[in-house]
Amino acid sequence: MSAWKAAGLTYNRYLAVAARAVRRSLKEEKRLAAERRGQQDLRFAKWTNGKQGEVRNLAEANAQQAVENAAA
Asked: Is 24 in the same domain as 48?
């Protein structure tokens, strides 16, 4: 079993964490440029019974979920 699976991460989340670690290790000028490229502007909606729910920003939803998981 992969280490990221054992840690309870999805592959996409694992990639995001690894990319963030690499960006943070860069020197200041290169780090700022890489962080700008790494910003997400993805949206999603949950569908229930064939009806689309509220469209939400993925980055904001992930941040909110992280806060809820930390509180649990």
From this structure: no
- Helix then strand then coil, % of the chain, to nearest 5: 60, 20, 25
Domain with 6 in it: 1-39
Tokens 């690499």 correspond to: 22
Give residues with Cβ within 8 angstroms of 61, minimum separation 6.
Answer: 44
Model pTM score: 0.44
Q: How many domains does the chain have?
A: 2
Query: What is the DSSP pairing of strand 51-57 with strand 43-48?
Result: antiparallel
**Distance between CA 32 and CA 24 in Å, rounded?**
9
pLDDT tens, position by position, 16-27: 888 888 888 899
Q: Is 11 helix (H, G, I), strand (E, B) or coil?
A: helix
| Contact of 66 with 60, CB cutoff 8 Å | no
CA-CA distance, 42 to 40, in Å (whole number)? 6
